[in-house]
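Example 3.2
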Amino acid sequence: MRLTPECCSVHTHSVLCDGKGTLAEMAAAAYAAGVRFFGASGHSHTEIPHDAGNVLPTDPAEYREQVLRLREEYAGQMEVLLGIEQDSRSAQPVPDWADYWIGSVHNLYDPKTGKYHGIDWDRERLIACRDQMFGGDMLALTEGYYRDVAAMADRRPAILGHIDLVTKLNRGNALFDEDDPRCRTAALEALHHTDPDATLLEVNTGAISRGYRDTPYPAVFLLREWRGMGGQIILTADAHSPETVVYGYGQAAELARAAGFRECVLLTGRGWKPCPL
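Structure, written as C-alpha cells:
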C-alpha cells in the first residue's frame, strides 16, 4: 500500500524491543509505503520481569545511534524522528534526546504484593490481574487502568497511546461490557485529564494487524468527546513488523470521520502539520 500525498508512521517497534524487524527494515518499509515522516518509538526500559527482552535495554545508546544513522540515510527523502514509548511504570524519565514521546499504560502495579500485571499480554494474565488485584471485579480493573491513564495524560505526552488498551483482549465483550457506565465514566475521566493543546490522541490500528481487534483504538465515543474538547488526532499503526507500518490507515480514517474529524495531524520535526482525512 502506497499512501499519497503525505503520511506519517511514528508508533513503531523493532527487534530492539518487541518488534519483528530491524530499525532499518522498518524505515525501508515506511519509505516504500510513501511515509514522509517516520518515527521510531521503542518501548522504554522497565525492570518488570515479564517485560524482559521486550523493552529497550537500560542503556538505549544503540537504539539512539541506529535511529540517527537512519536520519542521515534518508535525509531529503523521509524525515526520521527519534521517539520513545514511555511506559507508565518505567523508572527512567523520558530521555531529553527524544524528539517526541508516546505515553502508555501497559502494566498495573499491586502495592499489596509488589507484583506487576500486564494488561495486554493475554487473557489469562488479564484474568489473573482481575482476580488478584480487584477481587474478580473486571469493571474495577478497568477503573484502575483508567486512573493510571489519567496520571499519564497529566504528564502531557506528545501522543497518548492506545487510551483504551484495556479492551484489547475483550473481543465480543467476553470479559466486561465496554458500554457499562462504570467503564465509560472512567475512560472519559482519563480523557479529560488530557491537554488538547499539548497531546495528540492516536487512532491506533496495531491490535487489528495482530488479530486481537476488528476496529482501531479508541472507541468512537472517546473520539467524539475528544473532538468536542478541541483535541486533534494522529493515525498510527503501532507497527511491530515491516509489513504493518501503515496497516489499516483507511479504516482508522473512516473511524475518525465517523466521529466528526475531517483532518488528522502529521508529527514532524517542526511540530504538528494538519492533513485532510
